[in-house]
Amino acid sequence: MRVAEAWRVALDALRANRMRSVLTMLGVIIGVASVVILVAIGTGTKQQVEQQVEGLGSNLLLVVPGKIEVGTAPVVSPLDLKDVDAVSRVVGDPSRVAVTVASGATARAGNRSDFTTVQGVLETTPSVFTRSLQRGRYLTGADVDTSRRVAVLGASVARALFPDRDPLGQQVTLAGVRFRVIGVFAPLGQSLGVDRDDEVHVPVTAAQRLWGTQRIDGIAVKAPDRERIDQLGERIVAELSRRHPDTEFSAVTQQQILGVLGDILGVLTGVLAAIAGISLLVGGVGVSNIMLVSVRERTREIGLRKAVGARPRDIGVQFLLEAVLLTSIGGLTGMALGVGTALLVDAFSPIPAAITWWSLALAFGVSAAVGIVFGVVPAQRAGRLDPVVALRAE
Amino acid sequence: MTVAAIEAVDVSRTYELDGVSVSALRGVSLTIDQGEYVAVIGPSGSGKSTLMHLLGGLDRPSGGRLVIGGRDVASLTAPELATLRNETIGFVFQAFHLLARTSAVDNVALPLVYRGVGARQRRERAAAMLGRVGLGHRLHHRPNQLSGGEQQRVAIARALVTEPAVLLADEPTGNLDSVTGEAVLELLERLNAESGVALVMVTHDQEVAARARRRIAVRDGLIRSDTVHDRPGSAGAGEPATLDPAPSAEPRSASGSGPGRPSGGSGGATGATGRLPHAAGGAG
What we know:
Low-confidence stretches of chain B: 234-284
Shape of chain B: globular
Strand content of chain A: 15-25%
Keywords (chain A): Cell membrane, Membrane, Transmembrane, Transmembrane helix
CATH superfamily of chain B: P-loop containing nucleotide triphosphate hydrolases
GO molecular function, one term (chain A): transmembrane transporter activity
Membrane topology (chain A): Multi-pass membrane protein
Largest sheet of chain A: 6 strands, mixed, barrel
CATH class of chain B: Alpha Beta
Order of helices and strands of chain B: EEEHEEHEHHHEHEHEEHHHH
CATH architecture of chain B: 3-Layer(aba) Sandwich
Order of helices and strands of chain A: HHEHEEHEHEHEEEEEHEHEHHHHH
Organism (chain A): Micromonospora humi
Strand content of chain B: 15-25%
Distance between the termini of chain B: 9 Å
Helix content of chain A: 55-70%
Largest sheet of chain B: 6 strands, mixed
Helix content of chain B: 25-40%
Mean pLDDT of chain A: 88
Number of helices of chain A: 13
Number of domains of chain A: 2
Oligomer: heterodimer
Family (chain A): Belongs to the ABC-4 integral membrane protein family.
Radius of gyration of chain A: 32 Å
Largest interface: A-B, 23 and 26 residues
CATH topology of chain B: Rossmann fold
Number of helices of chain B: 11
Mean pLDDT of chain B: 83
Structural class of chain A: alpha+beta
Distance between the termini of chain A: 26 Å
Number of strands of chain B: 10
Number of strands of chain A: 12
Strand order of the largest sheet of chain B: 6-7-8-3-9-10
């Protein structure tokens, strides 16, 4: 039998049992669509996180007390502003050194309030991190030196406290102390579900006074170039370790952060794809099941075909093609559904999704392979039927 | 002499059912010549269906030698046997066995699919064949849109579209009323006469069998008689004799013994002309 003829026969058989064919395909459709959607979400999240980490600024070095490893407890920071001066001397340029001391606090304005993160920072922050203002100005050296109670609001804080008026020049109360709003950040959006616009920057000196501490939580350094970034990190860690022999310090680069995050998200994407793959497998079992039913139902047809000259292989190929057709059509439909859903998710939800060609190729390839794997047994059974027995079947 | 279409020598067929051997055929010899019209008659369980399956290459003998279209069935693989069926045998079944949801012309064209004939030529040949069985106006009807007689005529067209040497009809009128059955038999006989295809008809109906020139009676897995009648259709006189032939006539055919041994007895009993056992003619 010619291959084109076999395709036509298989297609006719699927059409003859339209409802059953569609329901059988549904398993494959759902499986393939899930693979495509989940891989798209995993990939989209990874891309977004990478962009955001890179968007922080270039050649960043983050110095924190303790080890940056999964499973280690956070360490109470022994750092203070004198350590920051020491780091600035190592770097050689104070404008390349930023600090933070952060704590959660309730911000109030009039009868509105918003629980947010208050960050005590130096005026150097915009030259280390990429942050742009939407309105007003950032902190100055004078603000820091004089512990002036001024604040720069994140976009969502500004929206929450001043939904219908200009926040500039207004008073906000942070942990019970009044600050004057001097600027508002441009929005950044979300990252891994965290609102990056939910923060307030105040002079580090004012923040320390607010919380009654001399502490600094972490130091960020913008290295002059990428080549010497690791060496600079080592020198900073050495200097801090000399000043605080009891504490370990870590310096991490964006590349290291990206590596860790990428690994985590890669594993996550893999796990999601595997779960979706299992549903594809279940769909394949459904195909196998339906093909066995089909062989049994059409035993007389098989007997007749054999009587008029169909070879075992002709019958086997016919049923195998039928199974492959089921899963391939299901696979294509699932791909279309998956791509469509992923695009909708990306456009209308905060979850990012990016279609990758390899996931489409993989999903389709796997679905076609599922058809072959799960179609072989029913096809062989059909091919081996004894024509005499088959013709007598009911 | 031309080569026999089918030649069986001491063919037996044994089935294994739950470990027990059941002999459906116990040594049968016969030859079907080209263009012959043969009725195989016997009660149910006589082995006539098994015989038909063997003659049609649907099954293989457990013992003996079976040659279809000049090829020894024992030496053929399953695919080769399928090809042999396709080229040599046309089947007509009691239950028609048409593909539902498939038009008459495509049903008739089915054997040509397995012969690798192109779609257009298939349709042309199938349509022509349907014309010959009087269904030229029903090409695109589906089986459920056709009467029983029409369905059987589609099946006959399907059996003949490959121009086989032998047409094997298994109770072709079993599912039809007598008038329709008569028309189907006349069609089969006309095609047998016109195209020279050998017609082997398996039946339990005496009247039907009486139409054939040669009648082979099967019982208990053996051929009880193999007789040739000069006046086909002499049902009244011939039939009972075929089923209950003179004792002396039986063992000859049943044993499949000695080629060349004259068949004196059977003819005498029925009043029909005796002839050589067919195995003898084919082998000779």
